[in-house]
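Hello forum,

I keep getting stuck at the same step: I have a sequence, I want structure tokens, and every attempt I make locally crashes halfway through. Rather than fight my setup again tonight, could one of you with a working pipeline run this one for me? It's a single chain of 80 residues.
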Amino acid sequence: MTRVIIRDFSVQGTVLPAGTLLSECRVVKHHGGEGDEPYLVHFATAGRSYTCPLYAFQPRTQAIDTEPAAIEQAPAALAV
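Reply #2:
Ran it on my machine without issues. Output:
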């Protein structure tokens, strides 16, 4: 699934700016110990892979259509 960041997103010591395209997004159930986040999101951008809690990822990203025409319209749609 492809998503776009809709507001600046700090993850693993890096700030990803709004408009950054994210690929390979997938939610994984984390089987850690008590107090660990139950769901993590794995995603990639600019050749790097990232992981963060689902609760931090969802409000800062939006799913987008990966058709070329839709990508060209994405920034305008986000400006609304």
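The helical segments are 54-57, 68-78. If your local run keeps crashing, start a new thread with the error log.
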